[in-house]
Amino acid sequence: MHRRHFPRALALLALVATVATAGAPGATAESPTAATTQLRATIDTILADTRLAGAQASVVVVDTSTGQTLYDRNGDRRLVPASNTKLLTSTAALELLGPGHRFSTDVRTSGKRRGALLAGNLYLRGGGDPTMLAADYEALAAQVAAGGVRVVTGNLVADDTRYDSTRLGPDWTWDDEPYYYAAQVSALTVAPDTDYDAGTVIVHAAPADRAGAPPVVTTTPATGYVRVDNRAQTVSDGETSISIEREHGSNTVVMTGQIAVGDEPASDWVTVWEPTGYAADVFRAALHRHGVRVLGQTVLGQPTPARARPLARHDSMSLGELMTPFLKLSNNGHAEVLTKEIGRVLSGSGTWTAGVTAISEYVADTGMDTGRLRQRDGSGLSRRNLIPAAEFVDLLSAVRAEPWFATWYAALPIAGRPERFVGGTLRSRMAGTPAAGNVHAKTGSLTGVSGLSGYVTSADGRLLAFSILLNNYLTASVKSLEDQIAVALAGFREGGASKARVAPPAVPETPRTPEGVECSWVKPITC
C-alpha cells in the first residue's frame, strides 16, 4: 500500500492552513519557530534519561489542525505497542459495527410443550456479550419460568458457535493464562462484576475466627464450576499474603499463604478453563432457583437448530456505551470479543484472522500504512504486534472526522481524573499538572514495554495528536517519562518561546506495572 502522509479527511484543511501561514517566519517544518525548537529540545532531554539507555523510543507529535509535525523521533520504527493496539480495534469496531451495535444472548427450544413440561433440549445461545453478569442469566431463567416451563426433559445445550473454539489469542504467553487480563474468549461467557472481565471468577478468602483454621472461601458469582483447593491458613497476627492461582487445564484454584484474624478478606480475579461451561453452570443454577428442572446433561458447543423458537432474550449495552469500560479500564477481553465480532459480522467468520483482516482494511482507509505494521490480536497482549508511532498519529488525526469521534474521545482515559470510569488507567497520573483533565490517551503496559498515545490540547488551544512507544528498557517503569512529555505538550504555546522549558517538567512518579497489567488501581494488585 502507498503511505498517505497525512490522513485524507484533513488534507484540505492542512492545505488551507499552510497557505494561511506561508508568510509567517519559522512556520514550516524546515524552519521551526523558536517555541517548537525549544519543545523539541525538552522532549530530547526527557528521552535522554538513563532509564532509556539501550532501549528504543518512538515519539511523534502532530498538530491535528494543520498536519505540522512538531516532533518526530524514530517515528517509522516498529515497536511493540501493548494496549495502544486497542486504538485500532476500538475505532474499527465503532466504524464497522456501529455505536448502536448490541450483543444478544437468548434461550431457545425446538422441543414440544405439554403443559409445564418441555419435551426436548433447551438451548442457551451466546452472542458474544462480554458484559453478561450472573444477574442477567438470572433474568433469562426468570423469563423461562414465567413462560410456564417447569421441567425440561432434554439437555441444556450451551451454544457458543458464533465464534470459533480458539480460546486464547495468538502468541499469548502460557504463564499469563490464570490472570484476568488473559481470559479465554467465548461467545458465551460470564463476567463477575461491572468491570466486565468476562471469563473470570473472583475468589475471596476471609479469615477464620481462630488461628490455625483455613480461610473461609467464597466466589463471585457463586458457582460450582470452580473448585478451590484451600491450602492457606488463618494466623493470629502477621502480614496477609494470600496467593490464588488456577491450575493449567482445569478449574481447580489453589490457594496458599496466610491471612490474619480480623483482616479484611483477600480477593483476586481468576480465569476459568472453558468459559462456555461456566456460563452454562451459572444459567443452570439460575433455572433451578426459579423452579425449572433440566433432566438431561449440560452439552457444550452445539449449534441451536434453525427452527428453534425463542423463550427468553437479553440484549447488551450498546457498543458506544461499552467503549467506556473497554477503554477506561483497558479491558483485554472486550478487545478480543470485538475482533471476533467484527470478523463474524463482516465475513461470517468469528475468528481472530477474519477480525484482524477487517480491522486492517479499515485503518488502511483512514491513512495508516498497514504495510508498515503488524497486528496479531485485538488487545495488544501479543508481543508480535509491531506498530510505529507515526502510524498511530495518522489514525488519531484521521478519526477526528468520524461521526462517532466524540463518543470514542470521551471513552479514552483522562489524565489526573480520580474517578475510575473517567480517569481509568490515567487516573493516578499527571495530577496537578497542565495535562490533568486535558490528556485523553490510551496507555499500554507489558514488561519492558510502555506506551501512551492520544490527544492533548496545547496552551494556545490546539489539539495535538501524539504517540509515545518505549521498548526494551530494564527499569521497573518509564511512565513518568511519558507523563513529562505529555505535560510539556500541554504547556506548549506557539510564539511563546520565552516560556518554553528545556528541562523536563516535574510530574509525580508512576507506580510500577506488572506484566500484562495497566497500572490503574483497577484491581487489588501491587502496581
From TrEMBL:
Coiled coil: none annotated. The lineage of its organism: Bacteria, Bacillati, Actinomycetota, Actinomycetes, Micromonosporales. PROSITE patterns: TAT. One of its GO terms (molecular function) is serine-type D-Ala-D-Ala carboxypeptidase activity. Keywords: Carboxypeptidase, Hydrolase, Protease, Signal. Its EC number is 3.4.16.4. It is an enzyme of class 3 (hydrolase). Residues 1-22 form the signal peptide. The keyword Signal applies. The keyword Protease applies. Belongs to the peptidase S13 family. It comes from Micromonospora trifolii. This is D-alanyl-D-alanine carboxypeptidase/D-alanyl-D-alanine-endopeptidase.
